[in-house]
Amino acid sequence: MPNINDILIMLPEFYLVAAACLLLLMDAFMKPAQRPLLHWVSIIVLLVAMYLVIVGQPPQTVTAFAGMFVRDGVSEVLKVFTLGVTAMLMVYSRPYLIDRKLPIGEFYALLLFAVIGIMLLVSAGNLITIYLGLELLSLSSYALVALSRDARLTSEAAIKYFVLGALASGMLLYGMSMVYGASGMGGTPSLDLAQLHQVMAYTTAPTLLVFGMIFMLVGIGFKLGAAPFHMWIPDVYQGAPTPITAFIASASKLAAFGMAWRLLDGGMGDLSQHWQLMLAVLAVVSLAIGNLVAIVQTNLKRMLAYSTISHMGYLLLGLSAAGPEGYAASMFYAICYALMGLAAFGVMLALSRAGFECEEIADLKGLNQKAPWFAFLMLLAMFSLAGVPPLVGFWAKALVLEAAIHANMLWLALVGVVFAIIGLYYYLHVIKVMYFDKAEEGGTLVVQQDKSLRVVLSLNALLLLALGMYWGPLLDWCRHAFGL
Amino acid sequence: MFNHLLSLLIWLPVVGAIPVLLAGAARPHLARWLSMLVAVLTFVASLFLLQQYNAAAGGMQLTESYLWIASWGVHYGLAVDGISVALIVMTTFVGILVIAGAWEVIQNRPHQYMAAMLMLEGLLIGVFCATDALLFYALFEAILIPMFILIGIWGGPRRVYATLKFFIYTFFGSVFMLIALLYLYQKAGTFDMATLAALPLTMKEQTWIFFAFLIAFAIKVPMVPVHTWLPDAHVEAPTGGSVVLAAVMLKVGTYGMLRFILPIVPDAGAHYAWLVIVLSLVAIVYIGYVALVQEDMKKLVAYSSVAHMGFVTLGIFVAFLLVRESGDVGMAQLAMQGAMVQMISHGFVSGAMFTCIGVLYDRMHTRSIKDYGGVINVMPWFGFFYVLFAMANCGLPGTSGFVGEFMVILASFSANPWIALFAAFTLIIGAAYTLWLVKRVMWGDITNSHVAEMKEINGRETFVLAFFAIAVLALGIWPQPLVHLMNSSVSQLVQQLAIHKI
Question: Could you report the per-residue pLDDT of B303-316, keeping only the tens digit for each?
Fold first, then answer.
């Protein structure tokens, strides 16, 4: 019987579930003309949830429902940024949804359910909770990708995402079952991450345990989009409606980091000598494939998809250091990446309108002449993604590189910087198109007039600069979450 | 008010760029005057710096240090010694002249041009006074952004190629320096440059770190064989971009050597001094010959920049030889002093040369030497300045170009006469390519009708060139104040060379 304490610990999640259901009902009973109201309602819902997360944060780590749910510093940071990033994303999406007459109610409700999935995932204390959160997030995301169901590319992307996602979930589940089995050999079988942490010490089937761990790693790799499990990323990024792509590129990455950390450090911490090198290899392959293939892309969304793959490589650099310093660096990276990705997609959303998707790099031609402010925001996002100081992307890279050096993996850090140089090219190319190319005569570039979008997007991009100048508090918050 | 003078010097132009940007395309004239105001104020502030700095005492002064990132122990640390002061004053001086030089030349979005220039100026000043390695690195890299924009938007026909090459090339070098700094941070637990200087390192560590630093700074200087970005960047950059690039940005490379290689890895530096000396001599002799055959004026001056910067690196590393092998501290000081004077002098001379080429280009829209001839007949005043700067470029006594080169050659003679012999080649080659350039462009009969239509320099151009001329002559005739300003800082640097860290 759950006591009131358990419910209080999970209050933000319960609240969000209730709000999401209510939103669905409102959508069903509202007149079409009133539906745009849902936009502001859902943003307020997210902000209130963020408030609940921060205010209700217990000083120590607490668990609810017999360890199924953990509320600690890491979950707090990830939840706050997930909620914040999603709220910003909603602001960017409004004109897009209205222009294209996409189903507004479903969009917000599904987005809220996906957020609940993320919140469960990053707070999971048990393999079951991980799976539950992951599926809630994934199923909502599949549906979101298919939102504009008449578009051919979108349907293709959704099917691909679903099939590959299901496969990865299967792998994860298979791995979990093996780990569960290994935990039962020589002791009581358990799904609890805290208990699994000890399994290595007593299990009579260590090979089975490591085998299961590898399958789980595949699931993590898929969720992160790290090569060689990256095949879905380019197609889904390109095919999905831009707001959904932005969601997958931002909040979803925070979730993936949370899941990876919970499973690897929480459940499989004693196996770190096994997964450390595997993560390092994933990182190197992701850096290589992401950066090299991104160079030849002409579609901006697809380019950013490959750039995501390379960024996940950097994120893995920190994770593979297998220590609190490295995890803090990785989390910092995930947060910064979410903000950078969001800004880049935000500019694309600001330049798109009904009948015109700003998604080819060539669409940005001469942007500095037509809309200098938006060109500047995109410039900030690109330099930040490329890792050029004083933007925050540079510090995020420096942190994960430092973590790798700290873990005696100087070679990995060197690989990281070499690919940073290669990666620089395609970000500079976008800036070149915006600033150095002449705008075509009679071009069709029109910027969305939506005030809230302009303001929030500007704040988003300027935040990259501000954080780059003063990144101490964010880093401290991340380090504090890992007990540093 | 002088407590935060260095911060003021950095942030005044950077923040000042914002109103310039906001002044907008609609009121270009307002943007121009605003940026001029900011540049002049920065220059005035740098004069205060000159007055506040106690040259006799030497050492790091006007220190500002605030904890920036607590968990990494990174400080927002600023301080200057005599060398930094000289470079900062040169930067602010050139800053005014490039803004005046671009006045009506830049018609395409002048507010963005001016703002980028001001940001560049502020960041460069920051590089010259950072005392925290991470702050230095961040500023060192951030410089690339405004320069990338300057070359890319306002450059010549192949500007995109040139600016991408410039950015990626320099970025390539500096990332290895980042790894070296992170490694040092692992060992020392801080990025404070004074602490890093005292950190004991094994020879193996020093060697790796030395090469990481060397590649970062050698690309910036640039030294042979990593100089190939420079001619492209110079040729395609707008005049102001070329001036700042040659006058100030190249010095960031040699300045970095002084601040990082000398104190942090002195033993590896001494061990590989021969390598840098050989590369410097190659720059002086071989690149001099390369300059001789150029048909593009800007390219010619760009290559001559590489050759002249060779003297700076030569001076710095000959000092290593002198201290470590012959123990001749006095001569080492002369070599180092010569390198520093050469740095400042080259700033003015190359800036002036590029300004002159800009003046010609604005009239003829070509940089090819063969399109000119007999310019002196139509532009006598311009000819006066042009010949003066050309003389300074080949190191004629009485101009600033002579002082530094002479000191370096003198000092290297006592290290090894062969080094001096090759270094002295510059007197012949430098004179050859410069005078031949002057002959083909200036003297003789008017070769074509376009030259005949050229107009004499206007008041604004005269103003810019006259200020450059004053600086060049002042340093040439009376270098004593500059030498005095840097003297105690230089001797402190030389003393550091003798410290073994193994």
Answer: 999 999 999 999 99
